[in-house]
Amino acid sequence: ETGVTQSPTHLIKTRGQQVTLRCSSQSGHNTVSWYQQALGQGPQFIFQYYREEENGRGNFPPRFSGLQFPNYSSELNVNALELDDSALYLCASSHGISNTEAFFGQGTRLTVV
Amino acid sequence: KNQVEQSPQSLIILEGKNCTLQCNYTVSPFSNLRWYKQDTGRGPVSLTIMTFSENTKSNGRYTATLDADTKQSSLHITASQLSDSASYICVVSLENYGGSQGNLIFGKGTKLSVKP
Question: What tens digit of pLDDT does each residue of B67-106 get?
């Protein structure tokens, strides 16, 4: 167990809908990064939150947005879902933004139909 | 562009056998290299993490090596077990934030299947 919890574990949504995924970071960690992992591929960086501020963003459209709360838990919101958004969404928590070890949650499997 | 390449893409071995997975990277500025094990549909779990000055690190039956000069790493699995069936992902961490790639550069992974 990494101490990083994601919810829900599985989700099915219809194209055009909106979804919110949640991540509780490990105790003492102030940084959360979100990744999208398509089947058979490595994780792709979506964005990172450090102390409640967005600290960087990957090549994802604005309909992917996020939030980090004072307790350092985080949300990933995706609007206007598309079929290609179907993937495993991972969050990783760490202390700091640079070369500290990152611990991953178990992921949320999103299926868009 | 920072990249991490892994080989082979997939591997099938018999239970009890050894295997070695490869990772080549072109990442700068390099901070550390990590190997993760990822079961299907689950989040990655850290196996080893090595800094520039470390050239080998073990975690039970897993031994990782790092050659910072040639920018190559390997993960050796000894006496494989059925539970070793998973994807193994090589990840290189940047010294500083990497812009649109983030500070962790992922390989695509090697899918290992251990057969009885």
Answer: 999 999 999 999 999 999 999 999 998 876 656 677 888 9
Look at residues A5, A30, A1 and name the one whose alpha carbon lies nearest to residue A105. A5
- Omega into A8 within 30° of 0, i.e. cis? yes
Q: Residue B87: closest CA among chain A residues belongs to which residue?
A: A40
Cα separation, B25 vs B35, whole angstroms: 13
With contact defined as beta carbons under 8 Å apart, do A64 and A46 qualify?
A: yes
Predicted pLDDT of residue A56: 87
CA gap B108, B91 in Å, rounded: 9
Q: Do B109 and A42 touch (CB under 8 A)?
A: yes
Element (H, E) at A111: strand A108-112
End-to-end CA distance of chain A: 31
